Amino acid sequence: MVFYMGFDQENIISIRDFSIDDVEYILKLAEKMEPIARSEKASNILAGKILGMLFYEPSTRTRLSFETSMKRLGGSTVGFAEAGVSSVTKGENLNDTVKIVSEYVDAIVIRHNMEGAARYVSDIVDVPVINAGDGAGQHPSQTLLDLYTMKRILGQIEDLNVSLIGDLKYGRTVHSLVYALAMFGVNMNFVSPPELRMPQGILHDLSKMGVSVKETTDIKDVINRSDVLYVTRIQKERFPDPEEYSRIKGAYTLDLKLLEGTETIVMHPLPRIDEISHDVDNSVYGKYFQQAFYGVPVRMAILQTMIKGF
Amino acid sequence: MVFYMGFDQENIISIRDFSIDDVEYILKLAEKMEPIARSEKASNILAGKILGMLFYEPSTRTRLSFETSMKRLGGSTVGFAEAGVSSVTKGENLNDTVKIVSEYVDAIVIRHNMEGAARYVSDIVDVPVINAGDGAGQHPSQTLLDLYTMKRILGQIEDLNVSLIGDLKYGRTVHSLVYALAMFGVNMNFVSPPELRMPQGILHDLSKMGVSVKETTDIKDVINRSDVLYVTRIQKERFPDPEEYSRIKGAYTLDLKLLEGTETIVMHPLPRIDEISHDVDNSVYGKYFQQAFYGVPVRMAILQTMIKGF
Amino acid sequence: MVFYMGFDQENIISIRDFSIDDVEYILKLAEKMEPIARSEKASNILAGKILGMLFYEPSTRTRLSFETSMKRLGGSTVGFAEAGVSSVTKGENLNDTVKIVSEYVDAIVIRHNMEGAARYVSDIVDVPVINAGDGAGQHPSQTLLDLYTMKRILGQIEDLNVSLIGDLKYGRTVHSLVYALAMFGVNMNFVSPPELRMPQGILHDLSKMGVSVKETTDIKDVINRSDVLYVTRIQKERFPDPEEYSRIKGAYTLDLKLLEGTETIVMHPLPRIDEISHDVDNSVYGKYFQQAFYGVPVRMAILQTMIKGF
């Protein structure tokens, strides 16, 4: 690869550790991985290599996506898909478990319920660590595949209009995503009920980064001037009053009727409950299953870079 | 392959979707797979390919058999061995889970407790779907391996005398098997307690297909004129009265003494409880572990056909 | 391999089935495996081969270590990481499950809670069986990796001074290890509270083998003349009185202060609770994570020998 010499991540812990060059390096490499991800081409680039999958919290999509990526590149995985309660609660056990597994494998992917777990692990082991979600913290491969989806479908990330919709207060995914979008100078709209607004701290950071942001409670305010509607789930548990929840939920649900006539695409990190109607799935608007697919070439790019270097 | 050009299954959902040519295509290909299944020959025909294993109900044998088949052919698997209750109960989740997984893999094997689940899935995804058991419904790879076992051990399927023994009322396996046997003009005996007779609808279908069928309650009526005794489990739950169950169970149990002097083989889809005595296991009659082995070349044939075409 | 022609283990059930030549054969082969275990070299020696992993009891370390070993050699694994209660309790099911799995795979690794389970299984199947722990019984690959660790770090096993510390009464690991060390003429010290002394039967056997053994209750008696401190966990459940447990535990805990000035190494089969202080982990004394790594080349040597012959 001659197009970029600067990638210097030893671990993938937070998207905020990435420079714009780091992001572009991964996205460019992901594009080269696509024929392998589509099963049009076989690869043995990671033959003999082992990826340790330590999923202290269950996650079908992220786990299967990383496993698929490793195996499409000729590598193998070992690990566990969910931890006994005992291992999760004792910090000491986490320490020894990851030290031992790091003696077996070439890289570790970890999902853990404790914020900061992935960075803690990266400090104590000698192999690269990839954060696949640490509680309320980071999930950087999700952010990278979100960016890749925009680039592949819309041709670029720069200067897009991206509207983030739903729970912007608690959503881990959107918090990571907005910092990454800000790096690319994306114009953002934040659409949420007043109770679930984007946290002030993040709004402040974005303002300092010189990013244009608009806040609203109504999808209709943004739908005609958005290139991307990035929808997230509103969780019932956030509302003390179930009736309040029902009323609000309806206002942040997308269906085909609402989308018709627009020129936007709909993305979602999945799983959804009912914030996107099923009639959107096979329409020209619904891109969330394609987005799920793009997780494979992006994670291939991450795995190759972490295990083989660049 | 020039011996047959007609296989047109895009999915493997029910043995009743198969023509006799389809069945013979798979059985012939399975024979070519045997040296690989026996580990005498390595294969890379499915290198780089990924099989999604979605087991919403646990199944050690079927799952390990499909995994072994995929891996012996150089391919890989991803998936889960048992689903959380939540995913099983919500139809919507099944939809999104299989759509997402279908973005990662080259084919899906699914076992689900709901009858019709596999066909439902095959309608919504773009990769081939193989039914590994859907509740009271179908389990076509079991039927194909049953047929293959008869062909390999007895040289042919046509004109055999096959006696099906045990629970013929509720047994999913035997319901699929009899339609397949009927295609080959097999003479069938149905041996069961009166409470667990073959359903009238199936008897009617077989009669229309011109198949010779005899019903009896006594194994001794058939044991000397059977080429195959296909034994199934009688479940205690079918009987309100435990004494009735105990009495009946004994009359449908095979042991070596009963078999001596006959020229039959004993098959069983497994797992058994005690309907076949252990003294039959290593006798010339007991073929159920060999039958389990034949599941591998048959599933290899299925996987190659579904993933690589024919 | 011309250096040794005598290995005649068809299965790996107990270290006590091994001659000293058998042990040395595995240790020499493990040394050749190290570059593959370190991911410096890829191997396809077990390509197309399948290892059945039947873990009736969960075990992260042993399971991941065997899986890594198989996959680094180009092979694959199938199996389960923990059994439903039903399969564990019924002897009949164990019989049928292992018979069926043996029809799919090239070798079986089994962990089971019943002492003798692995030998029972090896008697009924036609593929090699490797015992990965059977209740209070044997765990021979652990003993082999313990020996390998001593040989690799200290250059030899013969004539070492090895002190075994902690629960010597119930510890499965140390019971296997002392017989193996005795074969190599190792001088042994047994350091334990009086309640947890090495059983008389084993002391008697060692005496008959002409091995020098010293017993003490105090680590300080041995620490300056030990090449190896092999530490094991003292389980709370062994003591009716919790205060007694707390008092004793402290006397069998190693920390850096105690070790300073000595020329010993510290080994541990893991997992530890707090019998070794974390300040030992990265010191020159702590070798237990390196010991965990050595499990991979040793198990590779076992797998190659069992599956490919020697």
Automatic annotation (TrEMBL), chains A, B, C:
Keyword presence, Transferase: yes
UniProt key word Chloroplast: no
Pathway given in the UniProt record: Pyrimidine metabolism; UMP biosynthesis via de novo pathway; (S)-dihydroorotate from bicarbonate: step 2/3
Catalytic activity: carbamoyl phosphate + L-aspartate = N-carbamoyl-L-aspartate + phosphate + H(+)
Record-level GO BP terms: 'de novo' pyrimidine nucleobase biosynthetic process; 'de novo' UMP biosynthetic process; amino acid metabolic process
Superkingdom field: Archaea
PROSITE patterns: CARBAMOYLTRANSFERASE (PS00097)
GO molecular function, one term: aspartate carbamoyltransferase activity
PANTHER family: ASPARTATE CARBAMOYLTRANSFERASE, ORNITHINE CARBAMOYLTRANSFERASE, MITOCHONDRIAL
Name of the molecule in the record: Aspartate carbamoyltransferase
Organism: Methanobacterium congolense
Lineage: Archaea, Methanobacteriati, Methanobacteriota, Methanomada group, Methanobacteria
